[in-house]
User: Fold this.
Amino acid sequence: VAAIVLLSVLRGPTRQLAFLAINLTFVWGLALGPRGALATLLFILLGYGLVRIATRRSATGLGIGVVLFIAVFVYLRRYDFVQWILPEALLPRIISTIGLSFVFFKIIHVMIDAYADTLGRFDLLTFLNYCLNFTTFLMGPIQRYQDYRDQWEGAKLAIPLGFESHLDAGVRILLGLAKAYVLAPYFQTMALTPDTDLTAVSFPHLALLAYAFWFYLYLNFSGYCDVAIGIGSLLGIRPPENFNKPFLARNISDFWLRQHRSLTLWLTDYVFSPLYKKLLTSGFTARYKLLAANLSLMATMLVSGLWHGTTFSFLLFGIVHGLWFVIYRTWDSLLTRRLGREGVQRFRERPLVHAGGILLTFNATAAAFVFFQVSSARVMEAFTHLATR
Amino acid sequence: MTTHRRIGLKVSLAFLLLAFLLVFAKGSVDFVYTGF
Assistant:
């Protein structure tokens, strides 16, 4: 409430400084504690320096900057493989890195856009508030810098001026709270846990646990996003939408455009598209469009998996989604070759095909969530059990 | 639907949600994506 009042009353640098104070209070006091907040702030300031270098539009500068920034991120997050490579003495002290993955993707986006000269005006205070914005700091949605800045400066309206749009934002906050604090915990009691023993549950039971986790994750995460979007709307810096009924997705591609959409669009712009373009213009893959697409999709999903978590099971989560994409893309390509574009369109519009697609996608994504939620140790245990049966 | 009627319904929905939260909300919740 203090933030909404202050941001609507203050103007100019005072408004920026007041928002920075609110964001730092949130990050320091409520989210990370002093050591985590300090590490995050230094990480953001490193990012600022690297963005400044990227604005000089040197490909080498950008390359070194991105690699350095990824290395610092991987080090701070204590990825499993870092602990195998580095001796204990060289590992960072355990600090809270909540929200660091979101800050990391925001800054990489700013660096690349600065290099491509599509960023527009850029200054330290706006950048700090963009990275630390308390509404999206913990779990997104991943807003683009240009969108944030334009709304902050009033060049773009977050929501229409008027009572009803503000009432909608308030209702959205309450709806989000109801999803996250009432409905999600109900499904959580029936869902997979990190310690679920995959060798001890029957297949139908595992399916029910996975379905319950699917709904729990959706309600928990989309509930949070509803609150973030509602508060952001009232502050005048509305983040992008992140969900659009993912349980109605007809294929895996459709699913990722409905679930955590801001992440999907980030991955499309900064991983899939550049890689796909590169593969289409170089060497062996230039002759095989489907191969180039499939390799790019698998690489994108691997990045997605590793972004989601630091352990082996998150890598598997990425591989499984990559595999679903490869199967879907290959099937789609074969179907198009056989029926033609219009034929495929007609085929997809058949009610049974539509319903079958939804059912298949729901089950495929529920299966992938097993690797998302169950610990690496339990997943390895299940693989060993399967191999020795 | 008239604007007044629509706003009236939304205000009612807000109060219903608030009552729902006050009665059923859990005290603390873990957010899945904060682990990242």
